[in-house]
Amino acid sequence: MQIRERLRNLGYDTLLRVETKGIVQTNIPDGCHAASADYAIVSAVLDDLDLRPDDVLVDIGCGKGRVICLAARRRLARVIGIDLSPEIVAVAAENVLRLRGARSPVDVVVADAVTYDYSDVTCAYLFNPFEHFVLDRVLAKIEADRAGAPFRCAFVNLSDVQRETFEQHDWLRLTEERVLGGLSVARYEART
Ligand SMILES: C[S@@+](CC[C@H](N)C(=O)[O-])C[C@H]1O[C@@H](n2cnc3c(N)ncnc32)[C@H](O)[C@@H]1O
Q1: Element spanning 174, H or E
Q2: pLDDT tens digit sequence for 173-188
Q3: CA dist 101 to 17, 69, 127, 136, Å?
Q4: Under a CB-based contact definition with an 8 Å cutoff, are residues 104 and 72 in contact?
Q5: In whole angstroms, what is the distance from residue 35 CA to residue 66 CA?
Q6: Which of 84, 141, 162, 180 to probe ligand 1 with, by most ligand atoms within 8 A of CB?
Q7: End-to-end CA distance of the chain
Q8: In the sheet where 106-110 sits, what is the strand order?
């Protein structure tokens, strides 16, 4: 990462009164380490999701909570961070407590994305949290829990194999794909 981006991210952390920088190894089988995209990218992706005050947004694999903290500064029904690592969730929860400028309620929970109950979730953010076969199970769980209700999600750092996984879930349609800061970002929406 360029020094300029690093400094900008540090500036945002300071502004929000949180600490979300760095990479943390999690040792989760089939899961990714905890790391965040640049604040500028997270902010643009949240814009792409067209968030509304009645939305319940979940960051699936929330890491230290950069996304949920930024999202909580918007007016939403609820922001939820789930992560399989209790240590990481503890860091995210501390960040949420310290967060300056929160306008929405936030929950942070230790949970496996494969078994989490998505019944109330209208929107999801994923930053490449796990292998494609885990993604496949998570998408199947969301489809079952939402049972035809509206749902949209953004996936940051999409690889070809993950794109193919999404394509196998024809209850979702790709509504946008673009490259932000070198990362492929895709937005999907449930077919109505
Ligand atoms: C690349 S980090 C993304 C962090 C955060 N979303 C962000 O953008 O700042 C991926 C996170 O997914 C979590 N994770 C991996 N497998 C998971 C699973 N099955 N259920 C919940 N969280 C998981 C990891 O612990 C890690 O913190």
Answers
A1: strand 172-180
A2: 999 999 999 999 999 9
A3: 9, 9, 24, 35
A4: yes
A5: 9
A6: 84
A7: 40
A8: 106-110, 78-83, 56-60, 123-127, 152-156, 183-190, 172-180
Whether the predicted model's global pTM rises above the 0.90 cut? yes
What DSSP designation does 65 have? S
Nearest CA to ligand 1 atom 4: 63
Length of the chain: 192
Query: What architecture is domain 3-190?
Result: 3-Layer(aba) Sandwich (3.40)
Distance from Cα 44 to the centre of ligand 1, integer Å: 20
The two three-digit tokens of residue 117, written as one number: 């109950």
What stretch of H or E contains 83? strand 78-83
Domain boundaries, the chain: 3-190
Q: Which of 160, 162, 156, 164 is closest to 182 using CA atoms?
A: 156
